[in-house]
Amino acid sequence: MIRKGFVMSVLEGHEEEYEKRHSPIWKELEETLKAHGVHNYSIFLDSQTRCLFGYVELESEQRWNEIAQTEICKKWWHHMRDIMPSNNDGSPVSRELKEVFHLK
């Protein structure tokens, strides 16, 4: 299992809306994530900095990257772009983190 950590952010004043839109995520998006080998996916919010920390376990980098090509993912990005910084393709601005410690 591959572990990934990454950071994103939510625009000021939209923290509650971000949480609301994830409670729950769309069923079709959840099914797509699972169908692409995603497990144990969590996102944490630092309310002081509006930084979002994502942690996900996945079966394959290739299958993880394929999610971005699905219609439901693009629809989700469009749904979230008014409350998060976004790239030109609509994806949220995100930065992958390097794992420096893991305890089994």
How do the helices and strands line up, and which of them pair or pack?
Layout: E1 2-9, H1 15-21, H2 27-35, E2 38-46, E3 51-58, H3 61-67, H4 71-80, E4 95-97
Antiparallel strand pairs: 1-3, 1-4, 2-3
Description:
With 104 residues, the chain is α+β, with helices and mostly antiparallel strands. The chain is built from 4 helices and 4 strands. It has helices spanning 15-21, 27-35, 61-67, 71-80, and strands spanning 2-9, 38-46, 51-58, 95-97. A 4-stranded antiparallel sheet has the order 2-3-1-4. The protein is globular and about 35 Å long. The model has no long low-confidence stretch (mean pLDDT 97).
Described by the principal axes of the CA atoms, the overall outline is: globular
User: If you average the pLDDT, what whole number results?
Assistant: 97
Radius of gyration: 14 Å
Helix fraction bin: 25-40%
Binned strand content: 25-35%
In whole angstroms, how far apart are the ends? 12 Å
Q: Which stretches are poorly predicted, pLDDT < 50 over at least 5 residues?
A: none
Number of strands: 4
Oligomerization category of the chains in this entry: single chain
Largest sheet: 4 strands, antiparallel
Number of helices: 4
Query: What is the spatial order of strands in the main beta sheet?
Result: 2-3-1-4
N-to-C SSE string, H for helix and E for strand: EHHEEHHE
